[in-house]
Amino acid sequence: MTFMTATDVTVSVPESRNRTITPVILSGGTGTRLWPVSRASHPKQFWALASSRTMIGETLQRATGTTFAPPIVVCNNAHRFLVAEQLRENGCEDGRIILEPAVRNTAAAIAAAALLAAQDDPETLLWIMAADAVFRYPERLPAVLEKASTVAREGYIVTFGMKPDVPETGYGYIRLGAPLHPGHPDDSVYRVARFIEKPDHLHATEMLNEGGYLWNSGMFLASASVMLAELKRHEPDVLENVRHALLGSENDLTFRRLEATAFLRSPNVSIDYAVMERTDRAVVIPAELGWSDVGNWNALWELGDKDACGNVVVGDVVLEQSHNCYVRSEGMLTAVAGLTDIVLVVTPDAVLAIHRDYAQDVSALVSQLKKANRAEAEIHNRCYRPWGFYEGLIQGERFQVKRIVVYPGQKLSLQKHFHRAEHWVVVSGTAIVTRNEEKLMLQENESVYLPLGCMHRLENPGRIPLTLIEVQSGPYLGEDDIVRFEDTYGRQ
């Protein structure tokens, strides 16, 4: 059987091939309204906020099984190793990761995934979703997907509309149109009458009372060929530039790195505007999945298990005479007394305290921090790397102290510094240290001195994490004072 894709490339597909669903996971967001936990360096999808599993991990688990092809994840370069680790931890090592050179919104990301999937089978169904949504009733999802798959194979783009139970102002809405198949025994698929931007409270209340409106979940199901055809029809510049970016892409380890020049020419536009608001193929299926995009701290209060006083507590927290609060500590003891309806989030380097009614306004605080050039706006005290992580403990004039954790079998780059010397003290595990021409093996409570300018490398040959304390001293201690000579992970 031969199909003609929207890119005018003929693809041959065997008649016997079973049509599968290819999950497409968009992992480009930073979750600003969940600061100080979610930051650009480690955004919300990589945190276990609503369960014991990270949010992207939950997403991958929903999209795993015989029904699904290996997932395609679209993310930015800074998060590539975080995504790869999540795929590994969730048994999706055969998933593909597309790296965007820059943020170009969801239309370009979806175009890249659709073009890549169409190389294998243009009629595969793409289940497009964000990496950071929560479903309270995931057991209902298979039935909704089965219905959506039937409709998508008829040539429609199916969006999943969530039945609202409160006048939410943080979501867009979908107005239901006429049934897609009037008179059909199961006529619970509707044409989309229109999409509505995030409303104010008054209009959200009016829509809830009137009925016939659904929350726009931002999830879609469509064949790769249909999505590409609609992109070509409505936003050809997006499709053409992304197609060239994919043609010029390079394989980097397990990543597909899109060519930057062509990708940057693509218009910065959402898939809602590029296709969904303009296509005549848009339909919606109402669903009751207990969906939330976890867009702010109040959403986590709503999702969380509450005590007798309506409080949601995460971490080392003590409460007294407090009601309907969300209190989260990422380390230190946090004590709260006599407060009602507040959000208190404590991290090693920042504390957020707000009324729950102002949960949507956290992004304004982050904007202030960015204007003041505060590193805390985007960078965590703990920084993750493909080999493990490090976190700052103490910083003073001309010195700083860090904790470094190296995962089993991993190693840092062979490097040197022009402005600092370092002392390493092994706390647990075993370290092999390269220092110029020497190779040293260090055990617990042993140390090594690395003078300024020496070539050095750290690796963990053992089966347990290697933990050490690093003391840096010198006139400049920035992370950009690194010259790499060799790196397992292809970093420059």
UniProtKB/TrEMBL annotation:
Task: List keywords of the entry alphabetically.
Answer: GTP-binding, Nucleotide-binding, Nucleotidyltransferase, Transferase
Q: Can you state which reaction this protein catalyses?
A: alpha-D-mannose 1-phosphate + GTP + H(+) = GDP-alpha-D-mannose + diphosphate
Which ranges carry the Nucleotidyl transferase domain? 23-306
Q: Mind telling me which InterPro entries this protein's record contains? A: GMPP_N, Man1P_GuaTrfase/Man6P_Isoase, Man6P_isomerase-2_C, ManC/GMP-like_b-helix, Mannose-6P_isomerase_type2, NTP_transferase_dom, Nucleotide-diphossugar_trans, RmlC-like_jellyroll
Query: For this chain's UniProt record, which GO biological process terms are given?
Result: GDP-mannose biosynthetic process; polysaccharide biosynthetic process
Gene3D superfamilies hit by this protein: Jelly Rolls (2.60.120.10), Spore Coat Polysaccharide Biosynthesis Protein SpsA, Chain A (3.90.550.10)
Name the domain of life this protein comes from.
Bacteria
| Ranges where the Mannose-6-phosphate isomerase type II C-terminal domain occurs | 373-487
- How would you classify this enzyme at the top EC level? transferase
Pfam families in UniProt: ManC_GMP_beta-helix, MannoseP_isomer, NTP_transferase
Q: Which SUPFAM superfamilies match?
A: Nucleotide-diphospho-sugar transferases (SSF53448), RmlC-like cupins (SSF51182)
Gene Ontology MF: a single term? mannose-1-phosphate guanylyltransferase (GTP) activity
Q: Give the EC number(s) listed in the UniProt record.
A: 2.7.7.13
UniProt family annotation: Belongs to the mannose-6-phosphate isomerase type 2 family.
Under the heading PANTHER family, the entry gives:
MANNOSE-1-PHOSPHATE GUANYLYLTRANSFERASE (PTHR46390:SF1)
Name this polypeptide is given: mannose-1-phosphate guanylyltransferase
